[in-house]
Amino acid sequence: MKFKQQSVQCLSPSGLHRMAYTEWGEYDNPRVLVCVHGLTRNARDFDALAEAMSGHYRVICPDVVGRGQSSHLRDPAGYALPQYVADMVTLIARLGVQRVDWVGTSMGGLIGMALAALDGTPIGRLVLNDIGPAIDLDALERIITYVGADPAWVSFDEALAYVKAVSAPFGPLSEGQWRQLTESSVARRADGWWGFLYDPRIAANFASEIAAIAKNPDCWGLYDRIACPTLAIRGAESDLLTLDVWRQMAERGPRAELAEVAGVGHAPMFFDETQISIVRQFLLTP
Which of 36, 146, 165, 204 could be a cystine partner for 108, CB 3.0 to 4.6 Å? Predict the structure, then answer.
């Protein structure tokens, strides 16, 4: 496993902040794949996918601001889709390429949709992982119960048990995979306790912003403006991306190709070859 830890400076209304990212593959490869994680997750979720695709792409996996190794915003009101999209535009400018392919899980897919719908978008191919232009409100309520709670644990093993519990919809992962997910998500604090590597203030806007997305019919309008080839992946047991919405995504806008992952809810993690091959085939098939 070989990657470089990099960062880029971005701008928000409250000042400058640093967005960290991992970089895989050859620096001079003109083919770039950007992989963006979900709400409380981080760039290291894509280690297996990035390593598998690094022979074909320069793979860039950012920590969205407030997560992972990235800075926290001074003003939590900035934790919203417009800021995330602006940061990604800055990142792509840093990479020095005109086009990127995109894999977005959950929130990362929303960022990808917003960017792909813009005139002159740099996105060439778009993979939406268990996210669509309409979101189930019951699933949002489940997520809201733990986002921003800022739990702390006496030991790493307690943190591991918590991650397993709240992330059970990821599906049947091995003990090593659960440990990897936890190691990239938590750290020991100055007081000796263990805590998450994300700013708990990301919850400040989450409930109102995502509820607005779920109820806003314009989100379908956003999706309908996407013109690039699109793949919509759904966890077969997902409570966030409903079967009806997923099927509609094949009939509207970019008329997405559809793929479903058995035995997984929200969301597939691309840890095994079966899931990775779905992305590989879509991105590399002419």
Answer: 36
Tokens of 80: 């919203």
pLDDT tens for each residue of 199-208: 999 987 776 6
Which amino acid type is present at position 194? W
- Domain ranges in the chain are 4-139+199-284
CA distance 217 to 169: 27
The structure's pTM equals 0.96
Sign of CA dihedral 35, 98, 11, 140: negative
Residues 6+ apart with CB under 8 A from 168: 265
Sheet holding 58-62, edge to edge: 4-12, 15-24, 58-62, 32-36, 100-105, 123-129, 230-235, 257-261
pLDDT digit string, tens, across residues 164-174: 999 999 999 99
pLDDT above 90 for 135? no
Is the CB of residue 62 less than 8 Å from the CB of residue 88? yes
The fold of 4-139+199-284 is Rossmann fold (3.40.50)
Q: Which of 136, 89, 123, 135 is nearest to 230 (CA)?
A: 123
**Exposure string over 101-115, b if 16+ CB within 10 A, otherwise e:** bbbbbbbbbbbbbbb
Give CA torsion, residues 226, 228, 229, 234, to 10 deg: -40
Torsion angles phi and psi, residue 94, rounded to 5: -60, -35
